[in-house]
Amino acid sequence: MISEKTNQQTLVYLFLFGFLFLGLQFLLSVKTSFISDSLTKAAQIESAKEWNDSILYPAENLDPDKKMHPILFVIANQGKLKSVFSEVFARIYSVLFYFIPIQWIMFTNGIFLVLASYLLYRIGKIPVPVSLLIFIASVVFSQVLDISEVPFSIFWISLSYSLWSRGLEQKSPVLISIAIFLMVLGSFLRLEILILSCLIYGLSFLFLYFQKRFFEILFITIAFIIPVLLFFLWNQYEYGHFLGIRYHFNYSITESQSIGSRLYQLQKILFTSFTEPGLKIGFFLYSPYFLYVLYIFRKQFKTKNFQEPNLFHLMILIIYPILVGLSAPNDGITITSRYTLFAIFPGIFLIANQWQNVKTNKLFLFLVICSILINVLLLKVSKESFKMIRKTNSIYSSLKSDLWIFYDRNISGTAGLSLLSQPSISFQDFENKELRTSLFSRIRNEKINQIYIFDFSKTTPNAFMHLKRGVELNSDEFVKVLHEEGFQCKTYEEKSWIGYRLCLN
């Protein structure tokens, strides 16, 4: 039984963590974090609040083919505009936080982290300091600051994985079945959870097989197959691919990789890259103390005791990151460990098993401190990034017009939440007379008289400044082609790393 004193300490830890996490979000100004992924997810949630099955698009009348939406990860799918991220996540958040303005929703992330830690404590018997420490000293922390499905996914896996671990300890097929069923449902949030679910099912099969409980194997198989079929059928109906829109999007733009390329990608996701410029923060580089955990439990394999829960946690900690690394569509850019995020759960249970020993171990504590320092560095980078986004948003807010045209989605994403209300499109084919004339014909039909056109600055250093356009925004040729469409363009201007022109009909 858990003592009353322990319960009180637990509540204090959870309250302090939730309070400090919220304070950190305010300090970092995460309200201005809407760019790229988070901007797409914000558009999803706002669309779901209005019960739209297509992403909000204020300039939809100008784009009948749905090819010019200004938000990066919004694509046309089966005649509708869809985000490549989880639709279930957006629906859940639109219901839970219907009355909360979108720019405040990320401040609920701490609630799910606190609930996740509490579930690990109540069901999985994991001391709260252990789970909170791993959240702070792992890739989790850098992924839960802005709007994302990660906090809710962490909460969901904390529930299902804790039930599974309890089922192993109690040798309860019922608990194992419930855990598998719930975990597979988590695949609607992130596709990597399907890989984890398959691994959990396979290990549960072995667990019951060595007990010769064959009827129970049938029971857990049904609990696995039903939600898997539901997941496949829903994706096929909704997106036209049984693995969903994210898989379809990633692999439709990614060339097939050789075995060598897959292995190199695995290296980057697990550790880092030794040849590419720029640091790649893989899972075991981000949290090297998990390597120490593997060292502590190295003798576990020799026992080959398939009734010992720690053996299953150990196998997941090793196998899951490898499977994810080999199947990932890319390396995850800088934070390559984000694809293997759910590998923290077997690590949490293994560390909890040895907590009394490792919490005073100097090597373990040193490795944990290294992980925390990585997060401190990333927080500093995030703070500067959010500051720059806030500055950029203020530039756009002073340039309201009938229509914004962006040269590509990399720059349109910098406009943030303005894209949810300001009519905007992404178009750069000004040298293509047929496409240009077609677009401006619709613009005139909509009686649009004032347009701002944006591109990256050609003088202020930025990552995209050397992109070559068919017709450069700052050129005389641009003024000429817009004149052919009936628009008179003002002088080209730049603010920060944004270049723009005002054109009037």
C-alpha-based Rg, rounded:
25 Å
Strand content: 5-15%
Query: What is the terminal-to-terminal distance?
Result: 76 Å
- Determine the structural class based on helices, strands and strand pairing: alpha/beta
H/I helix tally: 21
Shape: elongated
Tell me, rounded to a whole number, the average pLDDT: 92
The count of strands amounts to: 8
SSE ordering:
HHEEHHHHHHHHHHHHHHHHEHEHEHEEE
Give me a quick take on this structure:
The chain has 505 residues and is of the alpha/beta class. Helices cover 55% and strands 7% of the residues.
Protein model, in words:
The protein is α/β, with parallel strands linked by helices and 505 residues long. The chain folds into two domains: 4-383, no CATH class; 428-504, no CATH class. Helix content is 55%, strand content 7%. It has helices at residues 4-28, 37-49, 87-96, 109-122, 128-136, 150-170, 173-185, 192-209, 214-239, 245-252, 259-270, 283-286, 289-296, 300-303, 309-327, 344-353, 355-358, 362-397, 409-412, 433-445, 476-484; strands at residues 74-77, 80-83, 403-406, 424-426, 450-456, 488-489, 493-495, 498-504. Strands 3, 4, 5, 6, 7 and 8 form a six-stranded mixed beta sheet that branches. The protein has a two-stranded antiparallel ribbon with strand order 1-2. The longest helix has 36 residues, at 362-397. The model has no long low-confidence stretch (mean pLDDT 92). InterPro entries: LA3751_2-like. This is Glycosyltransferase RgtA/B/C/D-like domain-containing protein. The chain crosses the membrane at residues 12-30, 95-120, 132-157, 177-210, 217-234, 278-297, 309-326, 332-351, 363-381.
